[in-house]
Design goal:
By secondary structure, this protein is α/β, with parallel strands linked by helices. The chain is built from 14 helices and 13 strands. The protein folds into 2 domains: 111 residues; 226 residues, Alpha-Beta Complex (Spore Coat Polysaccharide Biosynthesis Protein SpsA, Chain A).
């Protein structure tokens, strides 16, 4: 009787795992896509472009060149430099005008560097729309025009475009497709576009904000202590009843988020750790990661060991579903079949980062990004350490 009950419980857990895995597929299919618009489609409002940069010499030249090639006039483009020492400033100077270079003032206590740069740039520009771009984003010539016209058509207060992810190393090709799934599922990404939904997220790589709404809600100053500033800004807009829009634009913009395993680990750790830290939440995420992506693979050998045909059948379905799903995501994001088949390695990468996050959550712990360290306060806020 006990053995039969165990089989039933394991079968029900297998069904639950399948349903969860299906969410990422469902959200991927529901995600709207934005392609370059016809040349006749043009925005009506004025706009300014703000690019925060800190040691981006290897990336910013291509980003600024793609801005220069936009098919509408750019009259207000600002790069806010956060103390770069690698030649970033020289790359920007070579492209002025129309690009202006602004030195970021000293980072005040309680601010995260990127939010401070965005806030500085916003106050130094004019226009009905603010377009925030990361320094490593390369744009199609129609990108800015298409995105602004789309945001106006959707009557959005905050809109963002998910870029095409470029991956150079094997580690990127293994981990990034899994990261995309996590983002889709955790934030319920396509539901951001639904009226009345509580889902809130944005992509700070390519973010458009109506200035009147930005000013009314306090802009980046209101979320100055949040490391994941794009999501924090979207949550603030959602809480205020403002209109959010999110789309996928693989032909509009591309970026390579990380250059090697070390920078990828630092970047993802910064994102998952944040500054509003909860050890219980991180432990729960680790348990979910293991329970949803590793343990289900053990059902097939367990069923064989127990001689249970139902468990063998469910275990086989889970193997096909898990590996098939990850291969599909790998191919959709530009990686290969072999990279998708190595998804358990990506899970292990994430699990290791969560363990590091849990260790860093001790009193006096900190989160580090772009050469700056942000110490966690007891109340979950962060203050710039240096």
């Amino acid at each position: 009787m006990a053995a039969e009950l165990l089989v039933v419980v394991l079968l029900l857990l297998g069904v639950a795992v399948l349903l969860y895995q299906g969410l990422a597929i469902l959200f991927a299919y529901q995600m709207p896509r934005l392609d370059p618009a016809d040349p006749a489609v043009r925005p009506t409002g004025s706009f300014a472009i703000v690019i925060p940069a800190r040691d981006e010499a290897d990336e910013i030249a291509a980003a600024l060149d793609s801005l220069r090639d936009q098919d509408l006039p750019l009259t207000d483009v600002v790069v806010v430099d956060g103390g770069s020492t690698d030649g970033t400033r020289e790359e920007v100077a070579r492209r002025a005008p129309p690009v202006r270079l602004i030195d970021e003032p000293p980072l005040p206590p309680g601010w995260i560097g990127k939010s401070w740069a965005c806030w500085t740039g916003a106050r130094a520009t004019h226009g009905e729309w603010l377009v925030f771009l990361d320094a490593d984003v390369r744009l199609d010539p129609a990108a800015v025009r298409t995105a602004l016209a789309w945001a106006e058509r959707e009557r959005a207060d905050l809109a963002s475009v998910a870029t095409r992810m470029e991956m150079g190393s094997r580690w990127e090709r293994i981990v990034i497709p899994f990261y995309v799934q996590m983002v889709l599922t955790h934030f319920r990404a396509p539901r951001v576009n639904r009226t009345g939904s509580r889902a809130a997220m944005a992509n700070g790589q390519f973010l458009l904000v109506r200035r009147s709404a930005y000013d009314a809600l306090g802009g980046h100053e209101a979320i100055r202590e949040q490391v994941v500033e794009d999501v924090a800004l979207a949550e603030r807009f959602r809480a205020a009843g403002r209109r959010l829009r999110l789309t996928w634009g693989p032909r509009l913009a591309a970026t390579r988020m990380y250059r090697d395993r070390r920078s990828m680990a630092e970047g993802l750790l910064k994102t998952m750790h944040g500054t509003s830290y909860s050890r219980a939440r991180q432990v729960g995420r680790l348990a979910g990661l293991v329970g949803l992506f590793w343990l289900p693979l053990g059902l097939l050998p367990l069923g064989a060991a127990l001689g249970s045909l139902p468990l063998v059948a469910m275990g086989s379905v889970l193997w096909v579903a898990l590996f098939g799903k990850h291969v599909a995501f790998a191919r959709a994001t530009g990686a290969g079949v072999a990279d998708g088949l190595l998804y358990p390695v990506a899970v292990g990468f994430y699990a290791a980062l969560l363990l590091r996050s849990i260790a860093r959550g001790r009193p006096g712990g900190s989160v580090r990004w772009k050469g700056r360290e942000y110490r966690l306060r007891p109340d979950g806020d962060a203050a710039a350490k240096r």
